[in-house]
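[Help] Beginner question about ligand-bound structures

Sorry if this is basic. My supervisor gave me a protein sequence and a SMILES string for adenosine-5'-triphosphate and asked me to "get the holo structure". I don't really know what that means in practice or what format the answer should be in. Inputs are pasted below exactly as I got them.
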Amino acid sequence: MSVLTATGVEVTYPGAGRPVRAVAGVDLAVEPGEVLGLVGESGCGKSSLARALVGLVAPSAGTVTFGGEPVQPLRRRARPVAQRRLQMVFQDPYSSLNARRRVGDQIADALRLAGTGGRRRDPGAAGALLERVGLDPAMQTRYPHEFSGGQRQRVAIARALAADPTVVVADEPISALDASAQAQVANLLVGLARDEGVAVVFISHDLAIVRQVADRTAVMYLGTVVEVGPTETLWTDPQHPYTRALIGAVPVPDGSGRLPEDLPGDVPDPAAPPSGCRFHPRCPVATAECPTWEPVLRVQGPGHAAACLLAPDRAGAVP
Ligand SMILES: Nc1ncnc2c1ncn2[C@@H]1O[C@H](COP(=O)(O)OP(=O)(O)OP(=O)(O)O)[C@@H](O)[C@H]1O
Ligand SMILES: [Mg+2]
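Answer (accepted):
No worries, everyone starts somewhere. Holo just means with the ligand present. The predicted complex, written as structure tokens, is below.
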């Protein structure tokens, strides 16, 4: 059974003029112990979807379930105990950690809140969590500013692990780090999935990293999932023109760069999305029908679906 599901999820912000539908109807299921990559250009709604998945914002439509129960968008302390096993890691650990408290105390707080730390404080518990993320337990007496960026992100992950999570939603967890810390933190998150069965939603605009870490990948465009499937299938046999364009945009290893050949223009304003297929104004293969129909996800192969009028419609279940 999927551990986390989104069904018809929408997230709408009141805009200056028209409301912004940042997430415009997403169906997505996260399986236990998998790494699910979530990719797409800036502004496509990745963070908005992430916040809805963990209950930081209430969806304006649709439902999110965690462990079969609806996720309740409540303040952290008011959440049902079971929901604490759904955790989020942010791009900037500075903003999620308290700068004025020792990290050991912050992890101990998280243990208490999760009910996993017992009534009395176990001085070893916070250190053990630091050790689990590859840090020296003695570092628990330090303050966040005394860590490097990569170490600070490890602290944030240790604090998330205090709740014994079954799902960690990580929103650009390595984007602010230098290259070596990026690889280490990505490996740490993948290790949680491989070795401990924690499902990880790994959000990134960096497709090359996602290809390395994700078992499955979902591609978002302007608030919708346009393609989802096993990561290697998406890379070797992408069915949506947007996925093909994104893959074409991944920098080549020699650093000479590579621009998306077929992807003109910028992401349209989500407050006024194009009619029919939202991608049609930028699509190199759009037909006269594309502005008139909004495509839904259709099966392309095992566990693989794409929302394009030109993609096949094969038998099977949409993942
Ligand atoms: N609090 C908010 N109020 C109003 N509009 C918002 C708010 N947060 C996000 N948006 C808008 O919603 C859309 C989706 O934003 P979101 O941050 O979810 O995208 P993203 O894919 O995470 O982008 P990035 O890759 O830059 O992090 C954007 O148009 C953004 O301007
Ligand atoms: Mg974001």
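A couple of things worth pointing out: The first strand starts at residue 4 and ends at 13. The pocket of magnesium ion (ligand 2) is lined by residues 46-47, 171-172 (CB under 6 Å). Feel free to follow up in the thread.
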